[in-house]
Amino acid sequence: MQKKYYELTKNELLMNPKIPVRILIDNEAVFSLMAEEILREIETNNLQGKRTVLICPVGPVGQYPYLVEMVNSRNISLKNTWFINMDEYLNDNLDWIDMNDRLSFRGFMDKEVYSKINSELIMPENQRVFPDPKDPAALPKLIEKIGGVDVVFGGIGITGHVAFNEPSDDMSCEEFLQLKTRTLEISRETRAVNSIDSLNGAVDEMPHYCITVGMYEISRARKIRLYCFRNWHRSVVRKACHGEPTASFPVALLQGHNDISLSITENVATNGF
């Protein structure tokens, strides 16, 4: 009987994965690499006089202190860079949660990133973009207008979601990949996992709704860079790299992308079973 992908050893994980994998020593190495890869894209485009368009997460967030320090110390201009954040929590009226809420991704980016970058380097406010629940269609239109996304940076959620694209048991792969920016209800599993770091496990206090960029926007980016570093990522990574593409585990739908990579820690590479 074929060994289940959850049981794959480190060496077996690296044998013909459907998403290329590289292993780094620890969390800090992953976050540092992520920051370096963001800046490498920006510096390359700056030298060529080209715009940089990135889809970025708030989770993981460990890359941002490195990013801020590197931008300021290397004097890297972000004036021609667009940061499109993946998603944001919504209240029960399907409006953005308050920017001062401890869970707000908009608040995090403003306080921990944009306000800490030297003013002569930071991009204009209109290039700091979040999907808008009042006009979800505006984001795909903006991406098309500015020439598409250079790189998507992100993690993988417990249900295999990228951004907040929660799984579907009813949609085909093709249908799921056509989903654009939209509001949706967050699964109980995702709310539970997110509550651990954000609210010390108070899952009942987690928002039920969000707005997220779609798999349509993600899958059409020129590059996709994913990063995993938590203990439970052991199983998620194995399913992403050795499972079959299915809308019930969304990240697996990206297996056929032309330029995708997954960076993980030694801890994640260790057999989870």
UniProtKB/TrEMBL annotation:
What is the organism field in this record?
Desulfosporosinus metallidurans
Q: Provide the coiled-coil residue spans.
A: none
What's this protein's name? Glucosamine-6-phosphate deaminase
InterPro entries to which the protein is assigned, alphabetical? GlcN6P_deaminase-like, NagB/RpiA_transferase-like
